[in-house]
Structures are given as structure tokens and as C-alpha cells.
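Objective 1b. Sequence-to-structure analysis of RNA-binding protein KhpA.
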Amino acid sequence: MKELVEVLAKSLVDYPEQVTVTETEQDNEILLVLKVASDDMGKVIGKQGRIAKAIRAMVKAAASRTDKKVIVEIEQ
């Protein structure tokens, strides 16, 4: 999951070297924290949050095989 979010984010932003993804796993839940440069926040979130929703939907679809809940948070 971590690699998927990282590849998606790096393809969207102007500063891919500043993209970091942290993965924390607890019980049946995986928390992915995506950090990008402040200039790239708009590109990762998108208009009305559409890109962020798409990223979360892709991760949720990929996680459906693992029977774990995946949460994606975006920070700057």
C-alpha cells in the first residue's frame, strides 16, 4: 500500500523528492500518512478533494484482498 500511494503522489507533484509516506499498522487497520511540499498540496488534493478521493479509492480497492481497513491522511 505504501508503495502505491508513493508512486501516485510522486507522479502528481512538482517536487517528488519531498514526498514521504509513513505506514502504521494496528490490528485490522493500516494508517498511511502522505507528506508533500506545501506548494504541492493543491495538486494532491485536487478541486473539491477529487484527487484525494481517487487516491483513497485506489488504495481501498488494493486493500480489499487483505481484509484490512486502510486510512490515507494527507499532510504538508
